[in-house]
Amino acid sequence: MGTTTLAAAASHELVVKHSRFLAQAMPVVDADAAAIFIASVSVPDATHNCWAWRIGSGYRSSDDGEPAGTAGRPILAAIDGQGLDGVVVVVTRWYGGIKLGAGGLVRAYGGAAAECLRTAERREVVEMAEVEVECPFADIAAVHAALPAFDAEKLSEDYAADGVRFRLRLPAEGVDALAARLRDATRDRARLGDP
Fold it and tell me: What is the DSSP letter of 39?
């Protein structure tokens, strides 16, 4: 089985001893997207906006003023525990007047994040590849006809004196099959290469 991420944004609310915890999660492709999400959902007048993200081998977390290790790390552990990648989670806390202690904070932050992720809709992460296809004008229709079968998205189509150069984005696992289909459909006149 491949890696999974979230299919869409998700949220979960939890109340522990009058403190309110709101977990919000989102699929992200890079650290910049994670930072934008964190900034967009953090509530300025909340007591804390703690967060974590995991993108491939990269990860970051923040306790946002809570005791060290009681918020960001449990949120990250929830992401890893669900086997997710390309995910950011922000847990916002509104203090309810009763101290929870370090263990209570770990359980509340980690629990809110874990439940948010557990109930969220997921999708498989598909590795994508970008390739170029060059072909004579006579083979443009054959190239266009082949693209839908391989979920190939046309990024650009540039015309030159001797033909056309397409730049395509498609699931990496379909590149070899697309190359074979184009070879057959154009009598080896369409050439596939890296951009």
Answer: H
pLDDT of 61 reads: 95
CB 25 within 8 A of CB 14: no
- Global pTM? 0.68
Instruction: Identify the helix (H) or strand (E) that includes residue 109.
Output: helix 101-119
> How many residues comprise the chain?
195
Strands 128-135 and 163-171: antiparallel
Contact predicate 92/48, CB 8 Å: yes
Under 8 Å between Cβ of 89 and 116: yes
Tens of pLDDT along 28-80? 988 999 999 999 999 999 999 999 999 988 999 999 999 999 999 999 999 99
The angle at the Cα of 58, spanning 154 to 67, to the nearest 5 degrees, equals 140
